[in-house]
Amino acid sequence: MLQKTTIAFLGAGSMAEAMISGIVNEGIVPANQIIVTNRSNEERLKELKQKYGIRGMKREDLQFEQIDLFILAMKPKDIDNVLLSLKDSLKENHLLLSVLAGITTSYMENILHEGQQVIRVMPNTSSAIGESATAISKGFSVTEDNIQLTKQLLESIGKVYEIEEDKMDIFTGLAGSGPAYFYYLMEQMESVAAEAGLHGETAREMIAQTILGAAKMVQISGKTPAALRENVTSPNGTTAAGLRALAEYGGGEAISQAAKQAARRSKEISSQFIEKVKVTN
Q: Distance between CA 172 and CA 98 in Å, rounded?
């Protein structure tokens, strides 16, 4: 347990709650050393306080000298105002984690002090159940101790991967948006099940377990997805027929394009903020 670490969440949305839940339930940081703020929704703060035993307060009431780590979890459009409101009170030893899509570490460093420690974090929606695939990329001034601290915190919501920041867009396309691709696949499979008279929770659980089991096979077996696919595909069998249909109807290309388009959109969002910096300078 990180007994002496105090965390302030700036934002009280679903991602902030997922992280709070993981940190509290895993006992990483005592609940009374976690603070959550938002701009105006006092009912939301009250809900999180009652649910997790944490503290809630207005942002202007934060006592910076008592906080070690700030987690930026508000809407990306608010980033400038929030960083400017923090700038005069932050010290170089303060660590900022940003879960804001498209906001680069260099953009934040440009607004804050030279030497400010910033880490960009990209969890996905599975963080809500402690099964996130989370990428982190460090800013220029981050210490190794703070990288390890960040990993320890985020491992409470799943697996953590440290990557170079220029790979964040493709990570977003694959893992950040990836759960939605599987949900879409499950929707299509549920529809087929219903057409055949297999309805409701039974069909949904069966399909979910199929996807979960296939993913576990990749993790546990040490084999590539291609090798596992070949192992279960008998010539002229049922799986071969299904795979031929996927190829015929562009299933592989659709998945490829989904990831590429999501990554492209992530890059576009980042570019908008980069252009803003150029204009400002």
A: 14
Q: Where are the beta strands (DSSP E) in the chain?
A: 7-10, 34-37, 55-56, 69-72, 95-98, 117-122, 132-138, 158-162
Structure tokens at 152: 């320890």
Q: Rounded to an integer, what distance in angstroms lies between the CA atom of residue 105 and that of residue 96? A: 10
**How high is the pLDDT of residue 275?**
64
pLDDT above 60: residue 278:
no
Helix (H, G, I), strand (E, B) or coil at 160: strand
Report the length, in residues, of the chain.
Answer: 281
Residue 159 bridge partners (DSSP): 133
Q: Which two tokens stand for residue 215?
A: 């993913």
Averaged over 63-71, what is the pLDDT?
Answer: 94
Nearest to 155 by CA among 119, 174, 127: 127
